Amino acid sequence: MSHQSCMVRHFQYFTDLSESEIELLSTLEKSPEQLGSGEVLWREGERAREMAVLSHGWAYNSYMLEDGSRMILDIFMPGDVIGLREYASEKHQTTVEAITECTFCRFPHSHLEDVFEKSGRLTHTFFSISAIQQSMLVERMVNLGRRTAQGKLAHFLCEMRSRLSKTNDGSLEVFRLPLSQQMLADVMGLTPVHVSRVFSSLRDQSLVYRERHQISIPDIEKLKGFADFREDYLRLRKKDGFS
User: Fold this and answer.
1) Do residues 105 and 169 share a domain?
2) 135 with 149, same domain?
3) Residue ranges of the HTH crp-type domain (predicted)?
4) How many domains does the chain contain in total?
5) Is it the case that residue 4 has pLDDT exceeding 60?
6) CB of 86 closer than 8 Å to CB of 41
């Protein structure tokens, strides 16, 4: 899959795009930049003048707490737009770091404004994606504050699988999740040891099997029920009629 087609497929999940809109969208994926695992795209507190498209690989953003601990807020996959929530901010509110080898395409805010001016449908889609990102953040807060440790991990795995299904064919009974135990702990507010114990518990219940970074879910509907996972917050309705 080319680095351009990934973002287009991501957007086409929400709406049908014309050839001119596909071409306009592709202008945001020029000048690809390669970053290795652990390298930083931008840091919390730096001047926020740009956004980025993740064309290849996995990344995350994080916020450092006063005690030095890290909270991971978002996991980014190919096709994701990074920095939408900071569009009106003077400074970046989080640090963005590559999990795997990544290809990022930075673009200034003015390029997005050009897209808004030329396409109502793409404008709607960008706002839809921004709303979904906000909804995922709300679910993350619910996960941290209200779900059990098993519920947190089960819900997170359901969310990852659902997001992957947007740009992947097949049942996704098995999928790759390239997050370390520490990263998973920082997503869910647990310790790495606790994450390991929760995986063992889910395995004992035949809900989830993990082999290194490979996740196997034999019965996704059963896991969704266990996690009380309802994916409406990931699936905004299409809206037609834009030119």
Assistant:
1) no
2) no
3) 147-221
4) 2
5) no
6) no
The residue from 122, 139, 156 where one domain ends is: 139
The amino acid at residue 238 is K
Rounded to two decimals, the pTM is 0.87
Residue 66 C-alpha from the chain's centroid: 25
Q: Are residues 150 and 188 in the same domain?
A: yes
CATH code of the domain containing 7? 2.60.120.10
Q: Are 149 and 187 in contact (CB under 8 A)?
A: no
Q: How far apart are CA 111 and CA 109, in angstroms?
A: 5
Segments forming the whole domain that contains residue 170: 141-234
Identify which of 16, 98, 121, 9 has the alpha carbon closest to the alpha carbon of residue 52: 98
183 and 72 in a common domain: no
Residues 32-79: tens digit of each pLDDT: 899 999 999 999 999 999 999 998 999 999 999 888 889 999 999 988
The dihedral sign for the CA sequence 18, 21, 27, 29:
negative
User: pLDDT digits over 125-171, tens only?
Assistant: 898 888 888 899 888 888 888 899 999 999 999 999 999 887 676 56
